[in-house]
């Protein structure tokens, strides 16, 4: 369009590859994780011979919009990455703002009502291209991606938390869950865990394996008081630990207050303890929860885009927005981190099951986040040691991931592993995440209810 060539490499190929990996029978408000999770991988190649990678949630909507974006990305210069991203953004969301893709089936419409619907947001499409372009630009310039985000590198290692789940008994299903992937944590992560003691054992296994000091229990499964007892069990084993509990907004405000009030010594903060009810928005109930309990709040449900963030801030509803770079974009997530640092909030990140490309993306976004951050969510411990798409995934040691010094994202694609994960996808996947399917083995006829624990008190 009449502008001079930047002299930076040009993208010559873009591939969009759906991939799948194995998971445990992890319980949450929406049911039980299936034996497989899916993701979408983007590979860009430039005429300097570099490969750039991006990873985002799976799903037909994200996949097809990414495929449609190929002609907008191929032929672009990596030095003009912002222009390319604007083109993609405009194609994806002509009106601006957070966008959901077209619902293509009744099953997907059902999923859209559930907390993990943020994975279907079209910002994920932008992020997949953004991460891969930044990876290429970093390789061209010889700098890590975190140095290209916001004000650049702010830290050399990123604290991560042990994301603990109640685990269903896979032997009560005929689904192909793995029985074990080794010893210690690699054995433990496949066995049933439903009691406070079993949760504390899980926590201990993650400490042995990864050295965590921060923990999060996924709630919305048992009654609130029992989940708080599991938090107390973790604290009893690790008194210095920072622990949080996330029922995905399942508790009515009165119950959230009853469960948490007086437990500030157990909870470092409360993640989505309550949500919308009786005509009040989740931001309003979270603000009331904070005033009633004095406990700090985090969310990946009620401040998930800039407009929600503005309302949330006016109400003082949220102290810790969990700005997952997958649905905030990497640049957007860091922009929110800068705002948190300036406005007295704490930045953190939400996650979902993911491969090692996403682990690198989380690490670089968090490395560029200024000020105090909270240990970020990652599901990686449920996949680590077995799943990988890169030659050498970043490692969690001492509860932290060292920020790579290598150019770009600092990870190299392993094409054999990518091929195998794609073959697995073709064999097992294709439909939207539906946690009700596996849950029905534990509770026949089970259906999702946003205000009812998934296991406690169910038939
Ligand atoms: O993996 O079951 C899960 C989580 O419940 C996930 O879907 C949530 O999006 O991790 C998330 C959260 O913090 O709400
Ligand atoms: Mg959450």
From TrEMBL:
Cross-referenced InterPro entries: DgoD-like, Enolase-like_C_sf, Enolase-like_N, Enolase_C-like, GlucD-like, Mandelate_racemase_C
Gene3D superfamilies, per the entry: Enolase-like C-terminal domain, Enolase-like, N-terminal domain
SUPFAM superfamilies for the chain: Enolase C-terminal domain-like (SSF51604), Enolase N-terminal domain-like (SSF54826)
Metal-binding found in the keyword field: yes
Tree of life domain: Bacteria
Domain Mandelate racemase/muconate lactonizing enzyme C-terminal: 196-296
Needed co-factor(s): Mg(2+)
Coiled-coil ranges from the UniProt annotation: none
Molecular function GO labels: lyase activity; metal ion binding
Active-site feature positions: 218 (proton acceptor), 350 (proton acceptor)
Alphabetical keyword list: Lyase, Magnesium, Metal-binding
Binding-site list for Mg(2+): 246, 277, 300
CDD domains, per the entry: D-glucarate_dehydratase (cd03323)
Recorded family membership: Belongs to the mandelate racemase/muconate lactonizing enzyme family. GlucD subfamily.
Cross-referenced PANTHER family: D-GALACTONATE DEHYDRATASE-RELATED (PTHR48080), GLUCARATE DEHYDRATASE-RELATED PROTEIN (PTHR48080:SF1)
Protein's recorded name: Glucarate dehydratase
Source organism per UniProt: Pseudoduganella rivuli
């Amino acid at each position: 369009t009449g502008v001079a060539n930047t002299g930076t490499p040009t993208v010559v190929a873009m591939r969009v590859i759906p991939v799948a990996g194995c998971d445990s029978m992890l319980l949450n408000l929406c049911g039980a994780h299936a034996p497989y999770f899916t993701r979408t991988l983007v590979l860009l190649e430039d005429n300097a011979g570099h490969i750039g990678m991006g990873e985002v949630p799976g799903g037909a909507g994200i996949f097809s919009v990414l495929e449609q974006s190929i002609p907008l990305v191929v032929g672009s210069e990596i030095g003009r990455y912002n222009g390319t991203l604007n083109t993609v953004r405009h194609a994806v969301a002509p009106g601006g703002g957070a966008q959901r893709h077209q619902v293509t089936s009744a099953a997907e419409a059902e999923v859209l009502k559930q907390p993990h619907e943020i994975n279907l947001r079209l910002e994920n499409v932008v992020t997949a291209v953004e991460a891969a372009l930044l990876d290429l630009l970093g390789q061209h310039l010889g700098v890590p991606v975190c140095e290209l985000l916001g004000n650049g590198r702010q830290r050399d290692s990123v604290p991560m938390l042990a994301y603990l789940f109640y685990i269903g008994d896979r032997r009560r299903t005929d689904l192909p869950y793995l029985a074990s992937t080794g010893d210690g944590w690699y054995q433990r992560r496949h066995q049933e865990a439903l009691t406070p003691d079993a949760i504390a054992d899980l926590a201990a296994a993650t400490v042995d394996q990864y050295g965590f000091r921060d923990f999060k229990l996924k709630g919305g499964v048992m009654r609130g008081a029992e989940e708080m007892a599991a938090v107390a069990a973790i604290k009893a084993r690790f008194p210095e630990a920072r622990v949080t509990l996330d029922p995905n907004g399942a508790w009515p405000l009165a119950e959230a207050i009853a469960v948490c009030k007086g437990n500030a010594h157990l909870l470092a903060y409360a993640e989505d303890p309550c949500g919308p009810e009786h005509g009040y928005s989740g931001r309003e109930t979270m603000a009331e929860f904070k005033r009633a309990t004095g406990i700090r709040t985090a969310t990946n449900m009620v401040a998930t885009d800039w407009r929600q963030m503005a309302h949330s801030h006016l109400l003082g509803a949220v102290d810790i927005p969990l700005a997952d770079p997958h649905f905030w974009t990497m640049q957007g997530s860091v922009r929110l981190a800068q705002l948190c640092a300036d406005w007295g909030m704490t930045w953190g990140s939400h996650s979902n099951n993911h491969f090692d490309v996403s682990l690198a993306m989380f690490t670089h976004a968090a490395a560029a986040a200024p000020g105090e951050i909270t240990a970020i969510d990652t599901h990686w411990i449920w996949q680590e040691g077995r799943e990988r798409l890169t030659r050498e995934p970043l490692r969690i040691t001492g509860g932290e991931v060292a920020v790579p010094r290598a150019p770009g994202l600092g990870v190299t694609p392993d094409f054999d592993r990518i091929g195998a994960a794609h073959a697995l996808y073709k064999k097992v996947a294709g439909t939207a995440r539906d946690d009700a399917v596996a849950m029905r083995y534990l509770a026949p006829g089970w259906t999702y209810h946003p205000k009812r624990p998934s296991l406690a008190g169910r038939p």
